[in-house]
Write a structure and sequence with these properties.
There is one protein chain. By secondary structure, the protein is mostly helical. The protein has one domain. Helices cover 86% and strands 0% of the residues. The protein contains three helices and no strands. Helix 1 packs parallel to helix 3. The longest helix is centred in the C-terminal third of the chain and has 62 residues. The radius of gyration is 30 Å and the shape is rod-shaped. The protein starts with a helix and ends in a 12-residue tail after the last helix. 13% of the residues are buried.
Amino acid sequence: MAALNENYISMMAESLKKKIEVLEAIVELNGEQNEVLSKEPFDLDEFDATVHKKAEQIDKLELLDDGFAALFARVKAELEGKRDEYADEIKEMQQLIRNITELSAKVETGEKRNKALADKQFSMLKKEVKEAKRSSQMASKYYKSMSQVDFAPQFVDKKN
């Protein structure tokens, strides 16, 4: 059982390392998303692409979290009973968890910054759509009213 637990413990450490890689990818994607949101003119398709890339990374993150939780449930009792025996592995995992916490804070900060930029961009897009709609309605009303008016041409040649 001890060898099996050691395998589980090493798998948990690997899971944490993979989680760090995924979080680093999300931090990088947040940077890309920030650039897209800061560009003028705003490119909605490019923004959408970064959102999909981040969604893929978040899905990976959830899988890693679920896997880690399942592994931890299997070895929890063994770890608590023999903390001295697994001290090095526990210290390594604690350091990895600290790194994950730091990266999570970076992700959260980037998300907040990007949300503010996205709100600004979407507000401007909404305003542009509203103005375009109003202009279209005004033009439609103008042409409708002009088609109902029955009048003679303004310039009539009166030579005879």
